[in-house]
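task queued by scheduler; priority normal; single chain, no ligands, no partner chains; default sampling; output format set to structure tokens
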Amino acid sequence: MADTSRPPGNSSFQNSSDGGLSAAYVFRKTTTFLDEHIRAIRSVSTVVALLGIGYVVKSIKPFSKFHYVKQIPAEFISKSLQLNGRVRSVKNGCLKVEHIPIIDIQSISWIGSVIRQDSNGVLPVYIGGVELEDSAQEFITSHVDKKSVRFRLLRVNEDGGIDCIVTSRKGLMSRKNINEMIVREGHGRAIHIQELARNKTFLKLSQKLIKAEMYAEKKGKGMWIKPTRWQRTKEHVHFSTIKVSTRLESSGSRFFQFLWSKIRGLFRKKDNIK
């Protein structure tokens, strides 16, 4: 008969050489117990303020670390809860974020060394409510890459990632809204998401994004940069020249072809001077 007195799993769960339970096994059992009985613990104080997060907790697991989107409880997303994390990389406007639980046990050196093998996996976080321009990639990277962020959950999108409101530290007591900054600098535009039409958090975000887009358009930032009068004239002449040249080639008039080549040369010369 197999020995069932020893915990199953990898070697970190096995009894230590002196007959006692290993530190990893004791730690895992303890954190699991705390997570499963958090409601009883919460009855002492239902309002917490840990690491700057202050809200009434109804079903939170302070030790749980999410490695994949499917591990995040649906209740967290429906209530737009806020999580902490560190951005590991940014690609095509998607932030690869390592989730940091409310109580980060890895910050304790001896515990962290025991469970370091479980730290793999990052969450694909997208900038919610914003249609990004190509220029947004560099902007996002410069502001959040390799930095700690907070991301408020909005929904799981069609790509299997999470649309979020992303904020990063601005000063000692303030934070900057990355979604709003992107639109304000003209690197994206506000979009409506029908699925979140009744989400109060998203509606507040949409109001900020619309104001930011109006500001960017008024100031001519990013995608809203207005061409100068000379650029508009040059573009108009360019297309007109193409049309006229096509007609002249079909008519076979060398004189007019020569005349148009001189006119086009004048515009090229001015561009070189500029």
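post-processing summary
- DSSP finds nine helices and ten strands in the chain.
- Residues 9-14, 44-58, 109-118 have pLDDT under 50 and may be disordered.
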